Amino acid sequence: MLPDVFNATLLTSLRFHRMKHPRLAIVVILLALAVIGQAEPTCTCCVAPPAADKVGHPLRGVVVAILPEKSALLVKHEEVPGVMAAMTMLLKVDAPTLAAAKKNTGITATLVKKTDGWWLESVQSAPAP
C-alpha cells in the first residue's frame, strides 16, 4: 500500500502533466520517490534488530553526598572517556546501593544512561581517585 503522501503527490504530478508542465511533474515524482525511500519499513524482515537496552561505562569517583529523597548519590567522578568530562553530578542508584553508600568513600561502578537519567550499577567501594 502506498503512503498517502505519495498518492497525493502522484495526483498533483498528473495534474501538472495535463497542464503542460512535464518538467515539474518529473520533479514532483522524484520528490515522491524520495519520500517513499525514507518511509519506515512495515515488514519485520527489513527492520534492524533493537540495540542492546543499555550500554555501561566504567566510572571511578567519590561519593560527595547521599540524597535519599532523590534515590541518588552526588558523585565527583573522573572522566568517562567518550561519554563525559570529569565532574560532580547526581547519579541515581537502587535502594540497596543507597543504603550501603557512605559519604567521602571512593567507588567504582558502571554508568548507564536510562530514560530517566544516569544510573550507577554494580557499585563497589574502592580507594578514592
Structural class: alpha+beta
CATH architecture of the largest domain: Beta Barrel
How many beta-strand segments? 5
Largest sheet: 5 strands, antiparallel
What number of domains?
2
Strand order of the largest sheet: 3-2-1-4-5
Q: What is the radius of gyration?
A: 27 Å
Shape: rod-shaped
The portion of residues forming beta strands comes to 25-35%
CATH class (first level) name of the largest domain: Mainly Beta
Percent of residues in helical segments? 25-40%
CATH topology of the largest domain: OB fold (Dihydrolipoamide Acetyltransferase, E2P)
Low-confidence region ranges = 48-52
**Order of helical and strand elements:** HHEEEHEE
Average of the residue pLDDT scores: 79
Tell me about this structure:
It contains 3 helices and 5 strands. 29% of the residues lie in helices and 33% in strands. By secondary structure, the protein is an alpha+beta fold. It has helices spanning 4-18, 22-38, 95-100; strands spanning 56-67, 72-77, 87-92, 106-114, 117-125. The chain folds into 2 domains: 4-46; 56-125, Copper binding periplasmic protein CusF (OB fold (Dihydrolipoamide Acetyltransferase, E2P)), CATH 2.40.50.
Question: What attributes does this structure have?
Answer:
3 helices, 129 residues, 2 domains, OB fold (Dihydrolipoamide Acetyltransferase, E2P)
Summarize the structure.
The protein is α+β, with helices and mostly antiparallel strands and 129 residues long.
Write the layout of secondary structure elements.
Blueprint: H1 4-18, H2 22-38, E1 56-67, E2 72-77, E3 87-92, H3 95-100, E4 106-114, E5 117-125
Helix pairs in contact: 1-2
